Amino acid sequence: MISIKVILIGDSGVGKTCLIQQYTSKEFTEEHITTIAAGDKSFKEVKVGEKTLKLEIWDTVGQEKFKSVNKIYMNQAKIALIVYDMTEQNSFNNLPNWYKELKDKNDSVEIIGVIANKSDLYEDKVIDKEEGENYAKSIKAIFYETSALDYDSVAAAFEGLTKNYVNKKDEEERKKTEEERKKKEEEDRKREEEEKKKLKLEASKHNEDKEKKKDKKKNDGRRWCFIF
Ligand code: GTP
Fold first, then answer.
1. What's the rounded Cα separation, in Å, for the pair 33 and 16?
2. 72 CA to middle of ligand 1, Å?
3. Is 63 in the pocket of ligand 1 (CB under 6 A)?
4. What is the pLDDT of residues 102-125, one digit of tens each?
5. Which of 115, 119, 159, 199 has most Cβ atoms within 10 angstroms of its Cβ?
């Protein structure tokens, strides 16, 4: 089974831990217990078409003072969810810093999601969906609105991103196979051309030898006539 590392980053309190809990155990806690050591991993199996993938979901620390420990947690992640709280302007303003942090510390991330969390608190919303979507577009990420109280919205984000990851990998594989096929075709074509050239050369050499032999016979015949 393919295992992929997934990380959640974003300011403290945006709901990273709650999103993971909802997705992996269908639970929600009102409490905000700040993640301190970002070593916690949760697992979830996702089926995409014929493939089953094991998501290894890492919670990271949102608090500024712990940011330095995030490097190892960001490393090797293939899918990253950059989370903001749609009722908290600062968490949205900080998205570019989290994106930069991710790009600086991880060069293997394939799929990024921008997650606007706490959609159940729509009355307190301060960031419009469009703003979130535009930011996501600007960094080539996929936008999702979630509420950590609502399993379906959370699963849609995790599974949508996983599906995108699988499709991207399949497309890369398809391109690689196509390139290899073209390369092989080109090599076969060159080999065939070389072969044809060689045959042509051999044929003209054979004709030359034949002509030479004919000339020799003619000359020998003349010499005999001369002697007699
Ligand atoms: P750090 O570990 O400090 O980085 O925070 P975090 O991003 O992991 O936040 P956490 O999941 O601990 O959630 C912070 C607070 O927001 C908690 O009180 C949660 O109950 C609350 N919360 C998280 N997600 C939602 C949501 O979608 N809706 C509502 N109403 N509250 C949420």
1. 11
2. 23
3. yes
4. 998 887 899 999 999 999 999 999
5. 115
